[in-house]
Input
Amino acid sequence: MPKNAYGDEVWSTEEYRVIYLEDRKNTAVWSYGDGLGHIFIDGLGGKFKNRGSYNGYWVQSTSSRRCDTYREGIDGEPNYHWGRFEITFIDPYFPSRWQAKFGLCDQNPTITLNGTPVENFPTPVSPPKN
Output
């Protein structure tokens, strides 16, 4: 079981490749689309096994809609192109598949993405039994 998943977790989705960049306290920060945007997932930071469901948001420099409110971008600056992000991990081990939904601004997430670990990374291994 890796002590630190950064860089070891890369997924492919229907849209983009997604990379686990870093943790900012208890928030995981992911990148997608070769830096097109970032995802901030509350409560996932530092959690590398038995993951469940989490909420967060995505941001990027532009999108089809400019929101009335802002969220913090990767650089800490206000960003008006964002949306809600909900994710559920499917497997209890690392690396895990996941299913997520996202939307624009504060709208309910309705667009589904499925994340599958990239094959050139370690294959899933069950965690040791306690």
